[in-house]
Amino acid sequence: MKGFAEFRRKRAGLRESQADEVVRSCFTLVNKPYQFGDSVDWQREDIKEHVTLAGFELHYQPYLEDLALSWRKTRDSRYLDKYVELVQWWIEGNPPNGADFSRFSWSPYVISERIRNWISSCYWAKDNLPQSFLSLFEESLACQLCFLAHNLERDLQGNHLLQNLCGLAVGASFFEGSLAGSFRDKALSQLARTAESQMLADGMHEERSFFYHLKATAELVEVLAVADAGGFVRGGPKAKGEINRIADVTGRMAGFLRSTLSEIGTLPLLNDGEEVLRESAEWVIAKSSEYSSLRLPENDERSAGSGYLMGSVGPWAAVFDVGLPGPEHQLGHAHADHLGFELWHDGQKLICDSGNSTYAPGEQRRWYRGTAAHNTMKVDGEDSLELWSSFRVGRWPQRSSGKVIEQDSAHVVWYGAHDGYRHLEGHPCHKRWLCMREDLVYIFDRIEGGGTHSIGSFLHLHPAVQVNRIQEGFVGYLRWLRSEALLPISHLLDRPCSCSVWQWTYGEENNGATTGLLACLWPAKLQADVREVSSWYAPAFSHQMKNVTLSVSVSSRLPVELGWVSISPPTQAVSVLE
């Protein structure tokens, strides 16, 4: 148990401890404080009805680790007393098959988290806990483990099933007996198969969320840490073989993380989840490398796998999403962001995805999942996915593909296409090229098909970036973009286009602010509605920040071409916008 507890202690050190607040019955849940009274109402109505994720976090009980570690460090009895109190309250207040028991307390996903928090926290306090408490603790833990073993979330699959199996494998390794042994062997065998099947060609988790990918990688590393401490030796050679398979998957998933950090310096905010600190990702990568060999993906594996193309040229770095939204059997964490992207300049995020602030059903959840919250295009006001409820998807693209046309230290040209609007008249198809060179980034969009349609294109600026419109109605050409890599669209580069131009700025003016130009372009023959609107950026649950979104809308017969160009330094614009 020591090796596992040490691993969890170091992982807990990456987050802010709640111990002092929890002693006062204040819990931070989905980044917001919730005050409780003399006891904890585990089915608190406002949480149950409106903030489901907060209910999950209340029942995960990660704060037990914080209390146990604070007691170990200070020997302050307040922490140990609260630890005992909360465990006893939970056992008394959440009997199996009690009222609404499966909503939070006995949800298999929640149990998977909680049993590991209980085991690791108990290690630091067990020598000072009464035997009567330890007996109650172990009995409840065994009951939870049995419930989990018989209620794996095979209906949801995805990260839920992966977490179930990680929790079952780790939990069973701390019990003796034939039943525990059968749980352990079953979990390891199924975990190896599930991890392999959920890993894409480039090593990313199938749900294509960087947040959940990092979480899944960390949980696999946790299983490897238990194996390294001898937790599965009773499983014999078969268990060793399963562990080797899990280690191979972990190495590839960690390699995907390493490649992402090497290419763009951080983890993008795409699909559901939160922004992740680089130090957290680096820690998971470092721990992975202790138990497995990292393997980094090639560009063709990215195209065939997650569809996240990544690269950098000069001061620019970008990630471009040309893949499917997720696995057909589980699109709950997918957003309607086909051919969306994020863009950085000298390490500062310039163009951002909007993120996600809540999982609660309603207009806010609907907006963050919708196409207009991403850096891509809508047709006839439709989303590229048919979204409903909090985690449901109806229609989705049947074809979504992309490729690297050119990529080296001086130039990047990526291409992607999807048919998420094929249900509309004329079967519109969205094609996009994203090009980078040292002085600029250019996005060229073409909507093909038939009929007349309204087309909207959106660009979301990071809250740290200010913009000021400096010109509109200017007519220019795109001859400067001509290259062999763009032969498929070379006939379009001599056509006149109208544009609106903004200056963007980030950084403190007194400390050398960085500036550049941003222009949206459309065919000169068309009338365009160009707007700056106040919007939202949610880097974490329950945390929203104001930002500016630029949009251009046109109505025309297809095909239609639109574009965006970002230039830095601004003096380059003279040679670019002829």
Architecture blueprint of SSEs:
Elements: H1 2-12, H2 19-23, E1 26-29, E2 32-35, H3 45-50, H4 52-60, H5 63-74, H6 77-93, H7 108-125, H8 131-149, H9 158-172, H10 178-198, H11 210-228, H12 236-264, H13 278-291, H14 299-304, E3 308-313, E4 316-321, E5 341-345, E6 348-351, H15 363-369, E7 377-379, E8 387-388, E9 392-393, E10 400-407, E11 411-418, E12 429-437, E13 440-448, E14 452-460, E15 466-476, E16 497-506, E17 514-523, E18 529-540, E19 543-557, E20 560-567, H16 573-576
Q: How is this structure best described in words?
A:
This protein has 16 helices and 20 strands. With 578 residues, it is of the alpha+beta class. The chain folds into 3 domains: 1-125, no CATH class; 152-304, Glycosyltransferase, CATH 1.50.10; 307-576, Beta-galactosidase, Chain A, domain 5 (Distorted Sandwich), CATH 2.70.98. A hairpin with a 2-residue loop joins β5 (341-345) and β6 (348-351). α1 packs antiparallel against α11 (210-228), α7 runs antiparallel to α8 and α12 (236-264) runs antiparallel to α13. The model is unreliable at 573-578 (pLDDT under 50).
